[in-house]
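Note to self: the last two entries modelled the partners one at a time, which told us nothing about the interface. This time every component goes in together.
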Amino acid sequence: MSTPATGSGHRLEIKDLHVSVTADDEEKEILRGVTLRIQSGETHAIMGPNGSGKSTLAYSIAGHPKYTVTSGSVTLDGQDVLAMTVDQRARAGLFLAMQYPVEVPGVSVANFLRTAKTAVDGEAPKLRTWVKDVNAALGQLDLDPTFAQRSVNEGFSGGEKKRHEIAQLELLDPLVAVLDETDSGLDIDALKVVADGVNRFRQQQGKGVLLITHYTRILRYIEPDYVHVFVAGRIAEQGGAELADQLEAEGYDKYVRAAV
Ligand code: ADP
Ligand code: MG
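The predicted structure of the combined assembly is written out below.
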């Protein structure tokens, strides 16, 4: 277990969050009261069956316009995240890696990373150290320096997308990282490289991680401090890392049946 956050620690707090989406002119409630607190030094895993609302939680924290928060709150160190623009959320220290990253044709990885870094820091990074930092981040993820010249996500393999995501994490240096299905589409070598990146991040002082995943596989490489079972838009069970082992053995059935 992690040590409790000190006075200088940070805290992402989600309280009784209700979120709806509108599809075919019909409003559907997806999140039905989610309460969760992530403090510096803690890694939380959210696990649950497909369609339980895990990505909806990530998108809601990110400020995706498709998702309407109908009640509840999200705060980072007491500041109202829901009142912030997407850019302001990033500047406040939130990092959100998405399950379905968008292609940005014509924008190179190098320019994309530099623009993102400038937006987060409020000033452009110094060119000399920046190029070095980018190459180091790519290298740690087993990405060739030529990767920086490719268009963002265009023709990227699943593994390249996820490695690029973790390179962003390393370079943008947020306080709290929300990672949605970071393990999907990865072979075992890529999974280890990506997990190493997340572990490097979480070992730094003052960092929090919310790791969203359907499978327990990645949790063998990134051991969470807390595991939350997510079913039908709510947290149905909470525990430590041992809960992930239990889910691996038993699946989600028990929780799904209880939620009906
Ligand atoms: P998970 O990530 O756990 O698989 P999601 O959050 O993607 O679950 O989806 C939860 C539910 O919300 C599903 O029933 C899904 O169809 C619905 N949903 C999510 N996003 C949208 C959307 N943009 N439009 C319509 N329905 C959505
Ligand atoms: Mg999802």
